[in-house]
Amino acid sequence: MANQVNLIDRLRIENDEMNPADRAIANAILEDIEAATRLPIKELAARAKVSEPTIVRFTRRIGCDGFTDFKIRLAQDYAIGRMYIVGERTSAAETGPDVAENVYEATIQALAVAFSQRDPAALERATELLHNARRIFCFGVGGSSANVAREAENRLFRLDLAVSATADPYKQRIIASTVEADDVLFIFSVTGKPLSLVDSAKLAVSLDAKVVTVTHPGSPLASHATVNVPLVAFDEEKFFYMPNRGRYGQLFVLDCISTLIGARRRNTVGKKLWRARSTLVALHGSTDNQPIGD
Question: Are the C-beta atoms of 185 and 210 separated by less than 8 Å?
């Protein structure tokens, strides 16, 4: 993507210097930014009283690859900005409507932050290691990372990979001590500090195995990774019973990697997945429109 400057700030700062058509578009967006993140190009053009090609040229002039890229970046910047507003809440949401709004905001904020940190090269390198692995061991500890590690197992075994997951610190060390050069540890951690994960990564690398981590890029765990997919996951909840939104960022990274692996393996696992779907018909009828096994 071209330029990572905050779009909302740029629309405000450069407004006076824009030509009339661009200024009309910018003002239409700034009048209701949240709505603008959802508007189709036709409706935005109507609000700004310009043509659709003018909208496309505008998005490219401000550093985007086109209208779709512009909307993604606008939604991302708006969500991150909202994070600081929501962070100022002094009392917890306790009613259905308020809780739904808070959880929704937390979700889009976490996804926006994860998207803004994406490293396509790291995703590709991680995918290649996992795709070619003899065995994959998914590690995590704690409520979020342990569950995401289990979800990684759930995603990858469907793609005909030899994969297992554990959150047991003893078992993690034992596995790390028995890996070989064509094995991969796939480790999730918000902080990158749990000793069982750091020790396991260090041990696996010493045995020439590969380690793929999804964690804070400056953490001890990342320093022992063959490939680290960077993720700085925030958690600023003031109320202990609010769920950690950082897990949405971890799931975003996992979805990216599993989709990339699926694309690489679709020709070899297609028939096996068809057979898997067929065996499930006896359990609950046709699964033609359902994910395999769900």
Answer: yes
